[in-house]
Hints:
The complex is a heterodimer. Chain A is 38% helix and 13% strand. Chain A has an 11-stranded mixed β-sheet with strand order 1-3-2-4-6-5-10-11-9-7-8, with helices on both faces. Chain A is globular, with a radius of gyration of 21 Å. By secondary structure, chain A is of the alpha/beta class. By secondary structure, chain B is mainly α.
Amino acid sequence: MLNSLTIAELGAMLSRRECSAREATQSCLDRITAVDGRIHAFLSLDAADALAQADAADARLAARERGPLLGVPVAVKDVLAVKGQPLRCGSKILGKFVSPYDATVIERLRAAGAVVFGRLNMDEFAMGSSTENSAFGPTFNPWDTSRIPGGSSGGSAAAVVADEAIATLGSDTGGSVRQPAALCGCVGLKPTYGRVSRYGLVAFASSLDQIGSCTKTARDAATILGVIGGHDPRDSTSVPEPAPDFAAGLDGGIRGLKLGLPKEYFIGGLDAEVKSAVDTAVKQLESLGAEVREISLPHTEYAIATYYIIATAEASANLARFDGVRYGARVDGADPIEMYCRTRGAGFGAEVKRRIILGTYVLSSGYHDAYYLRAQKVRTLIRRDFLDAFEQVDAIVTPVTPAAAFKVGEKCEDPLQMYLFDVFTLSCNLAGICGISVPCGFTSAPKLPIGLQLLGKPMGEATLLRIAHAYEQSTPWHREKPPLPS
Amino acid sequence: MATPMNIHYVAHLARLALAPEEERHLGAQLGHVLGYIEKLKEVDVSQVEPTAHAVPLLNVTRPDAVRPSLPHEDALRNAPAELNGLFRVPKIVE
């Protein structure tokens, strides 16, 4: 089935004209019809538009144009602007919003000939770790539909693992690509802050947000990043450096690379099966020639508190724009203030309200220095920990999550427990470095995916992808498929 | 221990209408979260500069030239209410 192929496999078939982009796209659409009633990865889908793009790609292929994404169906998280398509961020407050322009990453995917389709489910405004905060109902884990797929890019990870798309885009503010990738069993890449333009990405926490991908292999992640990465003058935080050819160095092996194991990440609270899978993966990396040593990231225990102050503060400012004036839903009031309050009270879900309140509080007069300014200072220490560690090692190896996917509903009433689940992924965003999650095993009963996280230097994606690829070539985990009807 | 947050006041600052039940519920949940983030008080930050942003880019500018922007009608297309090419809102001044 074409929908179960990787970008590399499908791209090779397309370039040899052994199949058409239309057939590949139709195969994804058929798969969605067959399984998405159980997964709910997609909020909406414009099949006619997808097939029209596929036909355009077939015309380019017929004209002998070639490219790694030409004709490849790529689905998109509901947080990225795709011209003429709905954009709701998993929220009711955007109403019937239709994007008036393409995000930069979408422009680049289109230029490369990808078939950009679908709106993937997510926690409302990317705030959550389970996709249960979507106003349109949760997404379910393809390995066990009584469990969450992770979040906030739960739709992006589940769609790839359920073979509903060849690859997907998500966004990662505190782990929102890497964590669902780990819980669903695919490769999730969060590039360095500034590597990928955020133009057309709805802002959650602007100093932490970065667009990333969910793919079936590390090679596919390299291909996507090569297309969407690189400088964009429309995002002033985009680093003025061209994206290198990330796929070029993939087969270089990892002999002699130095990998650090942060001792603060291997302490109490880590599930025994997750720990065992990660330990085994580390031994595998050693057997491939890497040198492994223990390192310390001493401020790790402060990452969650720091993150939830900074992310909520930035969110409270960013989400001020949803006031019922220029777009989205509106609830009328006698004056503008009443209209704003009613619109926002009716339009936002519980988690978004919690974070707006917390963010407003930590920025409010009398509390700013005690919370927000202090968190920004601790952020400096967290970032410094990583930069010091990268003086000694080429990459850092950790678990992605403390445990495998939990049950739907299990943590809904306890936000703090939900936040603690992100303990291993948040620091990467605070430090502005890059990170990748790769499948590294399964729990025994039930069988649920486990992820391995690699963290790299700023702009060090090529090294991370090389390690991930070497690991993947020597292990079977990424080839396992969930028990869904075919 | 942190001073209990005045949810009603903060919700007004955030222009967020909350039902009394929501206020109670959010207040209890945020109490736990605030208790947790108190932990940052342990850290000595007296000699540390704040980080607002992880990438050292300063004063990013573009040429001051006229360029096409979003057409007027596209900007209004998602408006909940419009009048004469403008966003329509409730009366602001009498």
